[in-house]
Design a protein that fits this description.
Blueprint (H helix, E strand, L loop, with lengths): L11 E4 L6 H9 L13 H4 L11 E4 L14 E6 L2 H14 L7 H4 L4 H5 L2 H4 L5 H7 L4 H9 L18 H9 L3 E4 L3 H12 L25 H10 L1 H28 L10 E2 L15 E2 L5 E4 L5 E7 L4 E10 L10 E4 L2 E2 L3 E5 L2 E8 L1 H6 L3 E7 L17 E11 L1
Parallel strand pairs: 1-2, 1-3, 3-4
Antiparallel strand pairs: 5-15, 6-7, 7-15, 8-14, 9-13, 9-15, 10-11, 10-14, 12-13
Helix pairs in contact: 7-9, 9-12
């Protein structure tokens, strides 16, 4: 009888940061590759002496750090999953109490409460900005192997022993080089993306294993003081987590824009253009168009303080963006701030006959880096209700949106 055949998948390196649902991910990935293509080693100690063998495998998964990327096949994609830092840290502490093989401080932690562990510097030294530490690891594989080989019998050795303290910028830069970035809080998104791009079998369900069923919320029962101490040990990881959230959101935006351009839903305007306020607004945070007696249209933004305009633009040109609007709020337009592709931009603001005019330059360089996809995000600072006649939370009243193409 014939056997069912599955093709060969693209190589992948999964950098498993502890307590980020990595065991569930490992189980899923293990069913996407032929057994002969899966590296059996899942920790550095198992790799020592066989470093060059790693390139012969198509799936490398385990508690390795970013510098393992030097050993995996050159065409490997990479996956990392991050978790909200406070939840990850406390989950690790709870695991530590019951697992003598999890970390060398188990003997100290086993008789302590979580609150007591948080106040023990020897225990927390192993929990300081763990996610950034994994991403910042830069020692060569040879140096890491030598560290293990030179260890005294019984000495506790870790692949990060020789690494300097992590830096947020390096961790964020490394994150952008990783093809698949996921969050424990939304694993389905990264699994779906990998299934599409790596020709993996999409899971009908993705069960979480190695999870404490009695602790759906690992932070439950901790005081504000406890959590503040955990924050202090995760100052970099908390910022890194926000970087990851923004990166994931941006990548999804680019994929959506690419899909709409490819299908002809959106087209790149060849010259200057205006967005008709009476028609579809390519963005979010807009109320339905309203019309005056003269037939002119305007739109209120809301109900949130943020609104966006998202369009495909030319990659070989800069633009002057112009927003004409009214602002009925007592504070006026002074709180208005703008980001373009997640980077703040300086704006020019001055009064007009009918409200205000906001202008800024969309530079060609960032457009080229983003394949021309442009997301402008406004923050009005607040949304208000005008009174009994209109109970909607309102931002500003937009009268005109223009993109003036500046040839380069």
């Amino acid at each position: 009888m014939d056997h069912f055949q599955a093709g060969t998948r693209i190589p992948l390196f999964f950098m498993h940061i502890p307590k980020t649902a990595g065991m569930s991910m490992r189980m899923y990935l293990g069913e996407q590759y032929h057994p002969r293509d899966i590296c059996p080693a899942e920790s550095w100690r198992e790799i020592v002496g066989h470093e060059q063998d790693v390139r012969s495998f198509r799936l490398v998964r385990g508690h390795f750090r970013y510098n393992m990327r030097a050993l995996v096949p050159e065409d490997s994609r990479m996956l990392v999953v991050l978790r909200e830092p406070l939840a990850r840290t406390v989950s690790a502490l709870r695991h530590l109490k019951g697992d003598p093989n999890f970390q060398p401080t188990w003997a100290i932690a086993r008789d302590l409460s979580v609150a007591e562990m948080i106040r023990h510097p020897d225990i927390m030294a192993f929990q300081r900005d763990i996610q950034a530490r994994f991403l910042c690891a830069s020692n060569s594989p040879e140096a890491v192997a030598a560290r293990f080989q030179q260890a005294e019998p019984g000495e506790e050795v870790d692949a990060g022993d020789l690494e300097p303290p992590p830096e947020l910028q390096l961790a964020a830069d490394r994150l952008e080089t990783i093809e698949f970035v996921g969050l424990t809080e939304n694993l389905d998104a990264v699994v779906s993306a990998m299934a599409r791009e790596m020709n993996y079998h999409p899971p009908a369900y993705f069960p979480l294993i190695n999870e404490n069923p009695d602790r759906a919320d690992p932070l439950r029962g901790l005081t504000g003081e406890d959590l503040e101490l955990v924050r202090e040990y995760n100052a970099i990881d908390l910022q890194l987590y926000e970087c990851a959230r923004k990166l994931i959101d941006w990548r999804e935006f680019v994929r959506s824009m690419q899909r709409m351009v490819r299908r002809g839903v959106y087209q790149v305007p060849p010259e200057s253009f205006e967005i008709p306020l009476s028609d579809i607004i390519p963005g979010s945070g807009w109320y339905t168009a309203e019309r005056g007696a003269d037939g002119g249209a305007w739109r209120w933004t809301g109900p949130d303080r943020h609104f966006t305009i998202e369009v495909p633009l030319r990659v070989d040109a800069s633009y002057r963006f112009i927003l004409t609007f009214d602002d009925p709020r007592p504070s006026g337009p002074d709180k208005l701030t703008v980001e373009m592709n997640d980077a703040p931009v300086p704006i020019e603001l001055w009064p007009e006959q009918e409200g205000y005019r906001c202008e800024f330059i969309i530079d060609q360089a960032p457009l080229a880096r983003s394949s021309g996809f442009c997301r402008i995000r406004f923050d009005t600072g607040e949304a208000i209700r005008r009174g009994p006649s209109d109970l909607r939370p309102l931002g500003v009243l937009v009268r005109r949106v223009e993109f003036i193409c500046l040839e380069t």
